[in-house]
Amino acid sequence: VAELLSGRGLVLPFSGVGDFRKEVVFVGLTSGLHRHTLDSLAELLRCRFEEQGLLQGDGRGFEPHLTIMKLSRASKLRSQGIKRVGPALYSEYTDKFFGNQMVERVDLCSMLKKKQQDGYYHTETSLQLGGRRRSEPDEAELLRVSKRLVEDAVNRALQQYKQETLQNGGGPNVAAVQPPGSTEETPTKTDTTANSSTDNRK
User: Which residues form the A-kinase anchor protein 7-like phosphoesterase domain (predicted)?
Assistant: First the structure.
């Protein structure tokens, strides 16, 4: 792979929308040197799999693409009787350029094993093609962001609760609220306890 890239970054330009058997809608890859690099990489992997006796499949050609939708995953559409995606639905995007994508990692995935929690295919191994971009957050940063989002959501919920409480009655019934850590009991509760103790002695 390093020899194929020759130290160059791999940038994939995506353009145009198409479909596979009117069941899978995808964005295609434009032609160019990047396509030759991908084709060479696919052929290299195919040869290695054959050498190890791991090659399986129906011999279909390599067609790099970016999947947009699968009808097999669109249960709501299938329940409405939609079984095919006609080209007329995406005709205005057949020549649209969607942008470039820098390839930073190549994953060897299994489509037979259980998917990961995030819905991505089970990954057997990964090959990092370059360093992590500065703009890409690491796991620690993602954890901090997630924690902050949860805290913000809780604070907003508390503020909303306070506002609704004030609007509905001017606050909670202070006579029924006992300060934390207070051991003082109300006269009513003391009298009840005393009466109960007297009854028990009798």
Answer: 8-129
